[in-house]
Design the sequence.
């Protein structure tokens, strides 16, 4: 007889098994992404593919392809479309099932312009987890693992994850707040985008406000190189320019003259910056008295609680593997982490001399919240 499991042990075990399944199945998604298997399934359409067909079409091994397809179907990521049985010299021969992507899968896994796309988030987490040996060192002895070290996969997946939102929704989101829209619409407006990464927010601002000149600034050289080539490809080179500078240093690279900016934005980057108060103080110095300052960051709860929702759970995971170690890689860092709650931002803003922070009425913009820092 199997002994009855203690109720607490059983529930805890179920919770860990759920986590184990999540980790294991995410690793399976990484395989499908890397090997081009999802793309091949999408190409095959509803007719689906056999393991042999998938392997042949992608230059991979049939036995692994079969195992993966079966794993994906039991995990619910791939559908079994057909189980072909045929007669061969009087014997029943099973050609085996064909597999296809179920409805919705291609949009979530493969379409870079979809607001429902999740592959960049998968790749980002994977990039962080890949740094585990260095992360363990930092967790034990201090320091961190910087953005440059986490590497191109994190940089590219960060850019890819936010790009559709900036391209498709940023203009309308800002237009929905009349006084901000009014400032941005000034003829000849100067706009700065700090922590611009690969520049998609900068380019979206330049597109939405044709009378404005927009400068994207980032401390990461490869991001700025990528941003410049994105600007060239978008035909916005003239109005969207990019510079490498530390946002915490107002004089760095003569990036922005004091009192010159109509608007300054920081999109999902303040929590990564080691010195957020200095950054906001330099923002305050660069903006005109009648300008606007907007920070977009994760829409987390106002206070920590063990009953945090899925967004909190996810943001803490990115914090463990990416944002916190990135921030702590600079000595003396504030060590904010991904879960930057409104009271934390209010404290940083107050220390930088902003009298108040307002939550803007922009809803449904991915998992982000927009704050206006009043001058
Ligand atoms: C999470 S990424 C966000 C990039 C972009 N805003 C987006 O939404 O995709 C954070 C960015 O902040 C930049 N960053 C971090 N510290 C910085 C600093 N002190 N000055 C300028 N940029 C900084 C990083 O290099 C990185 O590109």
Sequence:
């Amino acid at each position: 007889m199997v002994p009855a499991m203690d109720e607490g042990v059983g529930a805890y075990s179920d919770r860990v098994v759920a986590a184990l399944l999540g980790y294991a199945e995410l690793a399976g998604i990484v395989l499908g992404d890397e090997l081009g298997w999802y793309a091949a399934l999408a190409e095959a359409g509803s007719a689906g593919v056999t393991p042999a067909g998938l392997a042949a079409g992608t230059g991979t091994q049939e036995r692994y392809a079969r195992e993966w397809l079966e794993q994906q179907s039991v995990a619910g990521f791939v559908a079994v479309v057909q189980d072909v049985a045929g007669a061969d010299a009087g014997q029943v021969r099973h050609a085996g099932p064909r597999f296809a992507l179920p409805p919705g899968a291609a949009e979530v896994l493969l379409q870079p312009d979809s607001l429902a796309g999740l592959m960049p988030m998968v790749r980002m987490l994977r990039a962080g987890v890949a740094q585990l040996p260095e992360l363990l060192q930092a967790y034990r002895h201090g320091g961190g693992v910087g953005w440059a070290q986490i590497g191109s996969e994190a940089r590219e997946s960060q850019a890819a994850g936010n790009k559709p939102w900036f391209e498709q929704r940023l203009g309308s989101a800002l237009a929905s707040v009349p006084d901000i829209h009014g400032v941005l619409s000034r003829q000849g407006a100067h706009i700065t985008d700090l922590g611009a990464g690969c520049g998609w927010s900068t380019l979206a601002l330049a597109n939405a406000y044709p009378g404005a000149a927009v400068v994207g600034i980032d401390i990461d050289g490869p991001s700025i190189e990528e941003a410049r080539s994105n600007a060239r490809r978008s035909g916005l080179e003239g109005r969207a320019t990019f510079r490498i500078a530390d946002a915490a240093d107002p004089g760095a690279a003569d990036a922005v003259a004091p009192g010159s900016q109509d608007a300054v934005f920081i999109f999902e980057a303040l929590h990564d910056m080691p010195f957020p108060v200095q950054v906001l103080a330099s923002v305050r110095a660069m903006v005109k008295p009648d300008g606007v300052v907007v920070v977009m960051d994760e829409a987390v709860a106002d206070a920590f609680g063990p009953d945090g929702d899925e967004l909190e759970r996810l943001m803490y995971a990115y914090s463990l593997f990416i944002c916190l170690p990135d921030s702590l890689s600079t000595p003396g860092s504030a060590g904010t982490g991904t879960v930057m709650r409104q009271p934390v931002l209010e404290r940083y803003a107050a220390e930088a001399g902003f009298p108040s922070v307002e939550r803007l009425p922009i809803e449904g913009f991915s998992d982000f919240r927009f704050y206006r820092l009043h001058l």
In short: Residues 86-93 have pLDDT under 50 and may be disordered. The radius of gyration is 24 Å. Residues 147, 158-159, 162, 194-197, 201, 217-220, 223, 246-248, 267-269, 272-273 surround S-adenosylmethionine (CB under 6 Å).
